[in-house]
Known about the structure:
- The chain is mostly beta strands.
- The protein folds into 2 domains: 1-126, no CATH class; 131-238, Single Sheet (N-terminal domain of TfIIb).
- It has 2 helices and 18 strands.
- It has helices spanning 2-7, 11-15, and strands spanning 32-38, 41-48, 53-60, 65-73, 82-88, 93-98, 102-107, 123-126, 135-138, 142-146, 151-158, 165-173, 178-180, 187-191, 195-201, 208-215, 222-225, 232-235.
- A 4-stranded antiparallel sheet has the order 1-2-3-4, with no helix packed on it. It has a 4-stranded antiparallel sheet with strand order 5-6-7-8, with no helix packed on it. A 4-stranded antiparallel sheet has the order 9-10-11-12, with no helix packed on it.
- β10 and β11 form a beta hairpin.
- The longest helix is centred in the first third of the chain and has 6 residues, at 2-7.
- The relative contact order is 0.09.
Amino acid sequence: xxxxxxxxxxxxxxxxxxxxxxxxxxxxxxxxxxxxxxxxxxxxxxxxxxxxxxxxxxxxxxxxxxxxxxxxxxxxxxxxxxxxxxxxxxxxxxxxxxxxxxxxxxxxxxxxxxxxxxxxxxxxxxxxxxxxxxxxxxxxxxxxxxxxxxxxxxxxxxxxxxxxxxxxxxxxxxxxxxxxxxxxxxxxxxxxxxxxxxxxxxxxxxxxxxxxxxxxxxxxxxxxxxxxxxxxxxxxxx
Length: 238
């Protein structure tokens, strides 16, 4: 028990954050997400609902050191939260996405890389006007996210006038279902109540093309294939 207490890192205590944040009814998602950059560097971001404040920082577990603690006031309501964050080796950046489509791109200056040259501490933008749900990052480049009635595809593109990169919605699939993607695969699956759709993702353009459709005779809510496409696991939520 003492060893656990010694290894714990209390975020509230470290940054003087109170405990006013309350859970949102019917949402099991937390108000905090994290992702590993490498074994000894973690990116953490969280949302304080009472003040609508986004916070993020980097944490080194071996030394318990935190760096680049940042706070940003968001233009949103208190039903918002960070849904997921990813580390992209391709751009050496953290991509963080909120349910209400706010996005943060945070360069990882802690990892020396030529791509860090000239970058700001972070870039904040709103990428869409719909609430986002389940999402995956493909090859560190393309974001695929589920909304209430569509599957949305985003990737960073350079604005021809400003010469700055922005997340651009380049493809939509008019299907409502559960997404699945595993790193190393070139397919995504969309599982609906009646059908399961298999899409091939072009490795250069990241556009998805329908490859196959099967009847959902198992009435499963998710189907998962491994990267070698030899085994499949299905399950159904209660």
